[in-house]
Amino acid sequence: MLLIDGKKTSEEIKSEIAARVAEIKVEGGKIPHLAAILVGSDGASQTYVGAKVKSCEQVGFQSTLVRLEESVSEDELLKVVEEINKNPEIDGLIVQLPLPKHISVEKVTNKIKPEKDVDGFTPANVGRMTLGWPAYVAATPYGIVELLKRYNVETSGKHCVVIGRSHIVGSPMSILMARNEYPGNCTVTLTHSRTQNLAEITKTADILIVAIGKPEFVTADMVKEGATVIDVGIHRVEDSSKKSGFRLIGDVKFDEVAAKASAITPVPGGVGPMTIASLLYNTLLAAEGKVYAK
């Protein structure tokens, strides 16, 4: 069984990005600059944004963090987004989710300039990805594709089953795995919470991508012998044996599924670290004008 190490791979990608930034400095070019907007004081969001800012420093990017009170109005937030849209010094913009209930995620996402949408969430980038045009691909799907590529997982002609249909992971993943390139050329089945006889379908998967958001949902009896299993889920569960009082698990029951899989991602240390590496990669593309020509 091959352990697909996202932590190791993400560090390799960061090293590659840092090397390119060093070249840009020597060339006298523009250093990539990522801006993040954080609304409110949600603990998980602060942790995620902090990790993104730290990663920017690690690879030599410039970064800007805009903190706004949870009470900020939708109009005020949209004005901040527009200011960053117009700032030529900033290459990429992310608005950390979730947002307070009084703010429309759709309105805010749609306000972000597609050329700066390094999260890959705007309709323009989702549409370009669907058409197979150059686009900023959402960070988690891009990270998964990169893991499959760097671990030489054969995808052509394989049956890929995706569990979960979110706009952030499941739906784009199904499109990427069906496209006519590597990784891709799979026959894809997109399943979700309303799918009947789910286990019968997952047992036919050569590649199983699980993003359903339910702890240890996929068990060994749902997996084909020799399948490649990608676990996107991450959940915190109480564990008194740990110093922290909790441990992290995924959407897949790792120990029993690993015994049947030919390759599998762990939680933590699998897909998660790849998300930030992908965000940095998109920001580098934005700074160099490689998706939307400058």
UniProtKB/TrEMBL annotation:
Cited CDD domains: NAD_bind_m-THF_DH_Cyclohyd (cd01080)
Key words of the record: Amino-acid biosynthesis, Histidine biosynthesis, Hydrolase, Methionine biosynthesis, Multifunctional enzyme, NADP, One-carbon metabolism, Oxidoreductase, Purine biosynthesis
Domain Tetrahydrofolate dehydrogenase/cyclohydrolase catalytic: 4-119
Top-level taxon: Bacteria
Positions in coiled-coil regions: none
Keyword Hydrolase part of the UniProt annotation: yes
EC number: 1.5.1.5, 3.5.4.9
Reaction equation(s) it catalyzes: (6R)-5,10-methenyltetrahydrofolate + H2O = (6R)-10-formyltetrahydrofolate + H(+); (6R)-5,10-methylene-5,6,7,8-tetrahydrofolate + NADP(+) = (6R)-5,10-methenyltetrahydrofolate + NADPH
Pathway membership, UniProt: One-carbon metabolism; tetrahydrofolate interconversion
Complex and partners: Homodimer.
Function: Catalyzes the oxidation of 5,10-methylenetetrahydrofolate to 5,10-methenyltetrahydrofolate and then the hydrolysis of 5,10-methenyltetrahydrofolate to 10-formyltetrahydrofolate.
Name this protein carries in UniProt: Bifunctional protein FolD
Organism: Belliella aquatica
